[in-house]
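[[Local backbone shapes]]
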Amino acid sequence: MSTPDAAAVPSSSPAPAVAAGVTAGAPRGRRNSLGPVGLVLAGGISVQFGGALAVGLMPRAGALGVVALRLLVAAVVLLLVCRPRLRGHSRTDWGTVIVFGVTMAAMNGLFYQSVARIPLGPAVTLEVLGPLALSVLSSRRAINLVWAGLALAGVFLLGGGFGSLDPLGVVFALAAGAMWAAYIVFSARTGRRFPQADGLALAMAVGAVLFLPLGIAESGMKLVDPVTLGLGAAVAILSSVLPYTLELLALRRLPAASFAILMSLEPAIAATAGFLLLDQALSAVQALAVALVIAASMGAVRTQVGRRKAGTARSGKS
């Protein structure tokens, strides 16, 4: 993976009106700058609450079974909604979407193997190191290194001590983080090559085809239990359909460096989901960690918005 390509979407390229939620004649101002940030935050909230639900589903279907259900249901929903066009795409387009699908399958499989062994909060905390590393490697501005460092400090504080965790669970979480960084890059590339969420729907189908045999091998007929199917569908909507669609649309307008730092909010959101759904309260140190992560994300957003305003001002003078 080359670092220049990881910078992903040029900040000056406008998003399609349907993705931005505005009409073609709407003014391009503050709302247009903050739009992708709202998409990322909404996706983060959805995926973490879906993850909390998935943890409760694992005793019924197993980690691989949950991933298979999640990818399969998400693929069916996206294919029905998007009805992607199969003709007219280049070999490079198909190569990009296939790699994107493989990346999604690997990211999901590794993460659920992790949360089957260690708690959700530490797993997300370790996983988010992947996007943070991408931020540092792909950033072309020194200030982004500051935000990445601040977010990294918060991530480690939120995770507390990792010494008591299952080493294999830690390895799975870190590997999932590496796949998350790759997901950011290939999500951006797929979003540029396919209209709307067509590329996402095709990539999800690739991931589902790859993972379904693993889920069947582990869980067998448990996957067709009505309760398991219903919960799996809920996990798919919350953890795949909504967040992946929102993030793909956001990456059309937000550089990968800033997007990766925004991903540092995931541990904070996971802690909130744990408090609301699993009755897990935050300690004082963890609350400080959440504050550091949020401060880093806000700094990244302000830097990005400021750069866009400066670019608009320069183009207006030319």
Residues 1-34 have pLDDT under 50 and may be disordered. DSSP finds 13 helices and no strands in the chain. The longest helix spans residues 30-82.
